[in-house]
Structures are given as C-alpha cells and as structure tokens.
Design a protein that fits this description.
alpha+beta; Phosphorylase Kinase, domain 1; Transferase(Phosphotransferase), domain 1; Serine Threonine Protein Phosphatase 5, Tetratricopeptide repeat; 6-stranded antiparallel beta sheet; 3-stranded antiparallel beta sheet; globular
Length: 654
C-alpha cells in the first residue's frame, strides 16, 4: 500500500467527532497512520505501519500539552528508554520503542495485539462476576508488581489501561498498558515537578475518576496510590460505576478526598463473597495511604483468600483486617538483671522494711513523670484545635464561594439551588475544622431552608450546628441545637450516622458537667441504636459501650460498668483487634472497676493487656500511661508484692 493509497475508515473520528488529521499521513518519517483507535487523558491511539518493516503496530501519541514543559530533553529520553528496556513481565504490555522528537513529540510503539479493554467489557456487560473479577485483578496485581520491580508506578490505572488479550483461552489473559508514562511526565515537566496531577493551569494528569487523594493534592506518591486507583477500578467492575463521580474534575477530586464510598450491593451474588470483596476494596480506598494495603502482595493475597478461605481463616488471616505496626514496639516486661541489681535484691531480703517503705511511698515520685489524668474526661472529645491548615482547603473554599455567588446572582438567595450551594460550603468548613465559618454558614442555611427546600433536612443542619459549637467550646449552644436535632430526627429520614452524632455530643456535654443522670439516659439511647449496627460499624458500638460503662463507673455501679466494658472489648477482640487508643482506655476502665470490686487477679490481667497498647497508641509518657502503670502497681502490691517491687525498681532506673 503506497502513502497515497491509505484508506481512511469510518472509525477515524477523534474524541470530538472530527476526522483525525493524522490518519493517512506519515509521522516522524517512521510510521504511516492507518486508523484512529481512540483517545484518552494522556494519549491518542492509532493503528500504524512501520515504514522500514511494513509491520502493523499500535502507536500512541502523547498529548502535546503534557510534554511542552519538558525541562531536560536528554534526561527525559533516557528515562523513557530505560523504561522500555526494564519493564518486562507476563502482565505488562511492553513498549517495543519509545520515540521522542526534537520538538518534544512523544510516540509509544506497541505490538498490534487483539484485545478487549476492561472498559469495553464493562460497557457491554455493565459489571462482571466476583469470581472472574478476583482472577482478573490478581493478574493486575502481578502487573503492578512487575512495574515495581522496574522501579516505576503506573499512576494512570483505569479500565481502559487494563486489557484482556483475545488468545482464545477459557481464562482471561490480562495485561496493563501505559505503565510509568504518567510518572515520568509529572516528574520531568516544569509545571508538574511536585507531582500535582490537577495543576493550577487546569491540566489533568491521569483520569479524575481514579485519582488517589494524594494525587489530587500533589503529595508525594508511592505504590499505595496505585492501590487506591485499583480499588476504584474494582468497585466499578463489581457494580458498574466508579465510587466517586462529580460534575467536574474538581468536584470529583473533592469526593476522593472527603467522601466515603457507598456500600456494595449485588442481588445475584453470594452475600459472603460480596462482603469480603467490599472489605478488600474499602481497604484500598482508605483516604490515608497508611491505612490501605501497604504492598501489592498483601492485596493479591487477599484476592486469592476471599474465594477459598472459610470464615475463621478469612477473619484471622486476611491482610484487610491487619493494622500496620510501628517499626519497633517493645513488649511490656522486665529488664535483664545486672549484678548490681542482684546485689541490691539480696539486700532487700535482709532489709525488708526498707524496700516496702520505698514502694508504698514512691507513687508520688512516679506521678511526677506523667501528666495528671482527668478520669472524668477520659471519654470526652478534648483535642479540638487544628494544628495546621488542611491541605488544598483554600482553592476548594474559593471555588465553593464562587459557586455560591454565582447561584445567588442567577437564582437568588431564596432558591433551592442557593440552599444546596450553601450546604456544600458548610460541609467543606465542617470537614476542614473551620468551626467558626461552619457555624456562620449553618445558621444562614437554617434561615434559607425555612422558606425553601434544600438537599438536607433541617435536622441535619441542627446536627452540624451543634457539633461545630461543641468544637468551639460553646456547650450551651451546642446542647440546644443537638437537642433540636435529636427531637427532629425521628420525624425526618436521616442516616444512622446523623442520628448518632448529636447523641454523642450531648453525652460528652453532660459528662463534662458531671450531670451523670442525663449522660446515662443519652448513652443508653446511643447504645440502643449502635447495637443494631454493630456488625457493620464495630468502632461505633465499642465506643458507645465504653461511654456507658464510664458513666456507670462514676455513679458507683461497678458491676454494670464491668458488663459494658466487657461487651465493648469482646466486640473489639472479635472484630480486628487493632492496637487503638480505644482499647487502651477500655482496658484501663475495666481494670479500674475490677480493682474497685477487689477482683485483683482479673484487674491485673486487664492492665497487663492494656499497658503495651497504651504505650504504642497514647505514648510512653502520656497521662493515661502513668495512671495505668500506677493502678497496675497497686494491684500487684495486693497480689504479688515482690513483682511490684521489681517493676518499681526497673521503672525507677529509667
């Protein structure tokens, strides 16, 4: 076929419906463009023919606006060349050549393989079955691991970059495309040196529907960002749509950074498998990279496990339930004994009265090592200050204010559209801990929704107003608004979380005031609601149990306090058992009420379990640690006085 004889097919239409100008032409003197295949956020894809060999290939042309800011063309070429050489593996579609011209045009050459992308598959079927999805995504994990071995991350993981080779097998043969290109582009161009995927000029690197929160805000990226993007793809594969879809790029990015994904519901699937796959996906979609899978291997292991494991094996073995431990964590115990200590111990056997006197009088000295613990505030939210500005807040605030002004000018302040825009601004201020601004805009929203219907019931606005007033220490105002929210919530349909928050705030207020009877009524109601959702929301149920136990303890009803501490701790042990500050506080509370009932053996066990958790979560010199160590020693003095002595000596030597 000569250059002039190339036939343009009906598929040579670009994303905008126009004939692609390159079809039928020769580019860079190397390839003849035969057909337009598609267009994405990074490249335009063609079917081409190499002039030297006559072989057909897939040719990807990186969009010019993404390469015009290349700082060092020689280094850029070298990195792409190294990528083509090093990126090899069964589950990666390898680059046959990467060509960079002097005018910064970038062309990626790949073998012409017959394939169907996951995007095409989903467009036809809507979603795919869990068993097939698990098998497919295990291969995606293999591909990401192959990329990691080559020293690159994908950074543009989406359904169109996951392809299934048509090799007439009965199983999917999956490969990843466009590996590493987004990473090198963002690191080697001037305007994106900070890896900001949504730039100040409005350019978008990667696909907004699959960007991780750290990509949206320009933070440093690692493989956990690809794990988040893969979580978005897995979510879409199961239910047919991505987890976060906004009206534009910025709204989508906001959802990635702030909103939780909706529960996965599949009518014709095994509920057990749905629950397991959701656990895996939601682990991937954690906003904080530290709370996601920490490696591709962990994710692949769970994808293999979810189809095969029994319930006990799944709950005890799956990485989704594991919490990454600190780099080093010392267990609570005794130090090795030096010869000087042995000598001193021998002397104590002779001079028994001296060490006993020292033990019984040294608690005061120990207390100086730790800040005092206010036990009445143990379960009350106290840290209300914001240490630093929330990243990305100012541009989001400005965008929300501009939207509000636009709606005010177009629709007026007495319109449903204005109420909705105001709701978005309230949500932004509240989620970013700008309590004063949130309070001001919530009060305005309440006035507007007296005459027009907004996207929220008024009970929701009173809930937010009560919360932001509480976080500013305005307890009387908070109480008034939370009581309104509670009284209205029965008449209005609210999410469970919206019903719980005003109760938790009211309980905290009454607890601070030492109004134990009022606190007890509130926490009993809170406990009643959380008992019905404890399977899906263990932390909320655990917290309600311990708050109720704390009030019973302060009222002197120690058996009831013990009962609820144990209920919460039993649920914690059977659901994840991560080393959290919740567990440390609950074990301290349980040990305290057991000691008050003279159940010293049980109290000792509670404190022994709680001390290493407290050290890891609250800190070795925290007020909670000091109080727990002191009560543990007091219990040991009753049970094992010489153990108490040895522990006291080891503490004193620090």
């Amino acid at each position: 076929m000569s250059e002039k004889e190339v036939d343009k097919t009906k598929s040579d239409l670009s994303l905008f419906g126009e004939a692609d100008p390159l079809v039928g032409k020769i580019v860079e003197g190397k390839w003849q463009i035969i057909d337009f295949l598609g267009e994405g956020s990074i490249s335009t894809v063609y079917l081409a023919k190499a002039r030297d060999s006559g072989k057909q290939c897939i040719l990807k042309h990186i969009h010019k606006h993404l390469t015009e800011g290349i700082r060092n063309l020689k280094k850029f070429r070298q990195r792409l060349s190294n990528l083509a050489v090093s990126l090899k593996g069964k589950n990666v579609l390898q680059y046959q050549e990467i060509y960079v011209s002097e005018d910064k045009q970038v062309w990626l050459v790949l073998d012409n393989v017959d394939f169907e992308s996951l995007e095409d598959l989903l467009s036809k079927s809507g979603h795919i079955a869990i068993e097939r999805a698990a098998s497919l995504f295990k291969q995606v994990c293999n591909g990401l691991a192959e990329g990691e071995a080559a020293g690159v991350q994908h950074r543009d993981l989406k359904p169109s970059n996951i392809i299934i080779i048509n090799d007439e097998k009965f199983t999917d043969d999956v490969k990843l495309t466009d590996f590493g290109i987004a990473q090198i582009l963002t690191e080697e161009t001037e305007s994106n040196s900070s890896s900001q995927y949504i730039t100040h000029t409005g350019k978008v690197f990667g696909s907004p529907l699959y960007l991780s929160p750290e990509q949206c805000t320009g933070k440093r990226l690692d493989q956990r960002s690809d794990i988040y993007s893969l979580g978005c793809v897995m979510y879409e594969t199961l239910i047919g749509k991505p987890p976060f879809v906004g009206k534009n790029v910025l709204e989508t990015a906001y959802k990635h950074m702030n909103e939780a994904p909706r529960e996965i519901e599949l009518e014709d699937a095994d509920p057990r498998l749905v629950s397991r796959f959701q656990t895996v996906i939601f682990k991937c979609l954690n906003k904080s990279p530290d709370e996601r899978y920490q490696s591709i291997g962990q994710l692949k292991s769970d994808l293999e496990l979810l189809l095969l494991a029994n319930d006990e094996e799944w709950s005890t073995t799956a990485n989704a339930f594991q919490v990454t431990a600190p780099i080093s964590r010392r267990r609570f115990g005794l130090y090795p004994l030096s010869s000087e200590f042995i000598l001193f111990g021998a002397l104590t056997l002779i001079l028994t009265a001296v060490p006993i006197f020292w033990v019984t009088t040294s608690f005061g000295h120990r207390d100086k090592k730790y800040p005092p613990l206010n036990e009445k505030m143990l379960w009350v939210v106290q840290n209300k200050a914001v240490d630093s500005e929330v990243e990305g807040f100012e541009p989001r605030k400005q965008a929300a204010l501009d939207a509000l002004d636009f709606v005010r000018d177009e629709q007026g302040e007495k319109s449903e559209e204005y109420a909705n825009a105001l709701s978005s601004l309230v949500e932004l201020f509240a989620n970013s801990a700008h309590w004063k601004e949130a309070e001001e805009k919530t009060r305005e929203l309440l006035e507007v929704t007296k005459t027009v219907k907004g996207q929220w019931p008024q009970a929701e606005s009173y809930r937010i107003l009560g919360y932001v007033c509480f976080m500013q220490g305005k307890l009387d105002e908070s109480e008034k608004n939370c009581l309104k929210a509670v009284s209205m919530s029965d008449a209005e349909t609210l999410p469970t979380g919206s019903k719980l928050q005003p109760l938790r705030v009211l309980g905290d207020i009454y607890s601070q005031r030492d109004d134990l009877e009022s606190a007890l009524k509130i926490y009993e109601k809170l406990y009643g609601i959380t008992e019905g959702i404890k399977e899906n929301h263990p932390p909320i149920y655990q917290d309600a149990c311990s708050k109720l136990a704390d009030i019973y303890s302060r009222m002197g009803n120690y058996p009831e306090a013990e009962k609820y501490y144990r209920l919460g701790l039993d649920w914690w042990r059977s659901h994840n058992k991560d080393e959290s500050i919740y567990a440390a506080k609950s074990l301290y509370g349980l040990g305290s009420v057991l000691a008050l009932q003279r159940k010293n053996d049980q109290a000792e066990e509670a404190f022994k379990e709680g001390i290493p958790i407290c050290r890891a979560t609250a800190g070795a010199r925290s007020s909670l640690m000091g109080a727990m160590q002191k009560k543990y020693l007091e219990v040991l003095w009753h049970n094992k006085p010489w153990e108490a002595l040895r522990l006291q000596l080891s503490e004193g030597a620090k």
